Amino acid sequence: xxxxxxxxxxxxxxxxxxxxxxxFLVNSGINNGAVRRGDHVxxxxxxxxxxxxxERPRSQPRSGIAQELLNLALKSPLWTYVMxxxxxxxxxxxxxxxxxxxxxxxxxxxxxxxxxxxSNVEYPEYYKQSFHAYxxxxxxxxxxxxxxxxxxxxxxxxxPKYGERGEDxxxxxxxxxxxxxGARICDNPNEEGKKVIVDFGCGTGTSTRxxxxxxxxxxxxxxxxxxxxxxxxxxxxLNLAPxxxxxxxxxxxxxxxxxxxxxxxxxxxxxxxxxxxxSVVNLSLVIHELPTSVAKQVILEAHxxxxxxxxxxxxxxxxxxxxxxxxxxxxxLFSLLRATEPYLDDYADGMQDLRQFIVDxxxxxxxxxxxxxxxxxxxxxxxxxDDVDREKIFEDYRFREDGSYAVEDTHLKPWESKDG
Length: 420
Known about the structure:
The protein is built from 12 helices and 10 strands. The chain is an alpha/beta fold. Strands 1-2-10-8-9-7-6-3-4-5 form a 10-stranded mixed beta sheet, sandwiched between helices.
């Protein structure tokens, strides 16, 4: 749930769609009581105050022959046996043309796996869906093996200037954005004398391994994902610690063995970790794959396990950005996007509500633009471990004075080719 791939298969499908979404300016959605300081907004309010989120219209299917044909195609074998395979073939082609050895690396990793039967594992109902055009969603080795491969390929497509380093540039943008709004590790260890990061929805551990290299002072990093297949692949990579394929090993990137990393299958809404025991909870491109009701449970669990002064780091798609707002208002394009992301409408509609939920729970919340269509958020738990109703602080840096998004959108448009 943490890869670029998981919310971008549709880009390769949309590349064949002839259409264009107009750009729309979007305001920041800050309520009238806001105080503007410089180019950001500070909102002070009591946690007992519950402002109602602004209602945003859903992207309803467009009428007309084009939309009707698309709707039929999405429900027919054409989608499963023609459009999806063509999209996958396009991803592989993009990877190979950018020096990402998809075919060889996938064959190598599959040869290293000691596959297991996870048919008896129980999952929440919302998770038993087709995600990213995999009929079994995230519950298969095929999806798990391809996660990091496809993330590299989609990164190369979205950021053609950087080629095979596109994904690194994408992830760097979140790191810089989080740092700019005060992301840090707690100075004080927990009761066991440890500084701990928990990575919710860790997938195969790409983000977990990245944080391990960035924060050597952390004693333990725990990655949690509902898919045992992704966890199995992630642990296989950690155990093998392969060098990059261009250096004579089998995988697309170098993986460093790190005894501090623990990847485990589990429900991030119910981790069983001790309360007040974690320095940081990270949620990277996870929330948009959850119903809003589940996302709130996950946020509550993050707050429970965080130490006083601990932080929630959240990186996500921003449907209040100009680029994603325009994309959503083009019903033809958004129909394809929703076909691979079952909860995307719920996420887009519930963005403001969920943000307010976070503001009401945490002592301080800051949000900023990371890319032209993504945001980074840091929410800090109160240093006082009590239930006292305190004044909350919310700071929004995503928009300029004229209402435009603070970071230019450099993503390749869905209808553009990499060479165009």
